[in-house]
Design goal:
The chain is mainly alpha-helical. About 60% of the residues lie in helices and about 0% in strands. α2 packs across α4, α2 packs across α5 and α5 packs across α6.
Length: about 110
């Protein structure tokens, strides 16, 4: 009622594990990680394209970093995502973020 009185549109949703925004961000981050993993673009280029191209406040991989890469990976697995990008596993094993990965480049894929 308070938000409606302040002029905000309020919508009720079922409360499910995983939360709506987290689920959407995790899926976007997964697709973004696939693009980086496939050599389509760099982490920086992808985040910049999404910020400037669709006016997101952060790029998908910046969101993944802020949320925690391991948390996003686990969320994807808990949502029964069958195509979790292996780059998530690599970052979790190395204990680094996408921002830190951008400095190392693509060399790990070629091993």
């Amino acid at each position: 009622a308070l938000l409606q009185a302040a002029g905000f549109a309020v919508t009720r949703v079922r409360d499910l594990p995983g939360l709506i925004v987290f689920r959407a961000v995790a899926k976007l981050a997964n697709e973004a990680a696939h693009a980086v993993n496939d050599g389509v673009c760099s982490v920086v280029d992808l985040n910049t394209a999404m910020r400037k191209g669709v006016n997101y406040p952060l790029g998908p991989l910046e969101w993944a970093d802020r949320l925690n890469v391991g948390l996003v990976r686990n969320g994807l697995l808990n949502m029964d995502e069958t195509n979790v990008c292996r780059l998530f596993e690599e970052l979790v094993l190395r204990q680094i973020t996408f921002s830190e990965f951008r400095d190392t480049g693509y060399e790990w894929r070629r091993k």
